Each structure stands twice: as structure tokens, then as C-alpha cells.
């Protein structure tokens, strides 16, 4: 009995002690330790899979902590920035972005039409003879 437990097993035992409802589920046969450990190991302690085992006070603490943090990621941050922006400023930014995109499209269309006009019929006949592979391999 001199074996010590793996550190992750010790962490899982601590997690189970914080959530006694897990023990009840295992004893009732609704869950088994192996599956619970694997889920805990892969998903982590904060996953929604553990919500049914949390007490009401833990759920409230989690809600307040996630509201202060940015759990939703960058989309929430963008949403907050849009809320803080003035509507006129937002319209100006959208207009300038639209103009910039229009300019880029115009430049690209000029390059495309320039390539088609300058190429003539010589490249049109050469195009089918080129290999369809993007890489050419040569023998030494």
C-alpha cells in the first residue's frame, strides 16, 4: 500500500469532495468512476457537464465570475465596443471601410482586365497545353 496516487487522481478526488452529488450518482448506478474521471480529465472542472453536480451557491459564484470575465470571447468584446461607439462614428467607419473595399476591388478589376487585354490570342492557345498541376517535376 506504499503506492502514491497519480497527481491527476488526487485532483479528481478533491473535485469529487467539492461535489458530493457525484458520489450519490455513482452509488445509485447512474455513473461510474472511470467515465467521470475521463470526462473531468478531458473537459475540465468548468465544463457544463458538471452543472448538475454543482450547488446553487457555486452556480451563482460562477455566473458572477464569468460575467466579469470575457467567456464569450472576442465577439462579446466587439459587441461591447459597438455599444460604446457613437452611431455617427460607426456610420463614418462603415462608409470609409466601404470606400476602401471599393478601391481595392477597382484596382483588382483593372489588373484582371489588363491581363486579359494584353494577353491577346497567343496565351489563349497556350493555356490548354499547360499542365494542370501546380508543380512541375523534373528528372535529374
UniProtKB/TrEMBL annotation:
This is Uncharacterized protein. It comes from the Bacteria. Pfam families: YlbD_coat (PF14071). Residues 53-74, 109-140 are annotated as: Disordered. Residues 109-126 have a biased composition (Polar residues). Residues 53-63 have a biased composition (Basic and acidic residues). It comes from Rossellomorea vietnamensis.
Amino acid at each position: 500500500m506504499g503506492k502514491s496516487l497519480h497527481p491527476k487522481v488526487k485532483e479528481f478526488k478533491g473535485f469529487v469532495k467539492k461535489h458530493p452529488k457525484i458520489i450519490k450518482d455513482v452509488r445509485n448506478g447512474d455513473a461510474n468512476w472511470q467515465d467521470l474521471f475521463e470526462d473531468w480529465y478531458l473537459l475540465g472542472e468548468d465544463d457544463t457537464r458538471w452543472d448538475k453536480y454543482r450547488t446553487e451557491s457555486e452556480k451563482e459564484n460562477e455566473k458572477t465570475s464569468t460575467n466579469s470575465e470575457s467567456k464569450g470571447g472576442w465577439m462579446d468584446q466587439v459587441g461591447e465596443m459597438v455599444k460604446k461607439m457613437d452611431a455617427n462614428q460607426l456610420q463614418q467607419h462603415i462608409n470609409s471601410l466601404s470606400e476602401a473595399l471599393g478601391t481595392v476591388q477597382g484596382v483588382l478589376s483593372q489588373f484582371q482586365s489588363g491581363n486579359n487585354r494584353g494577353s491577346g490570342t497567343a496565351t489563349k492557345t497556350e493555356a490548354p497545353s499547360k499542365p494542370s498541376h501546380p508543380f512541375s517535376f523534373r528528372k535529374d
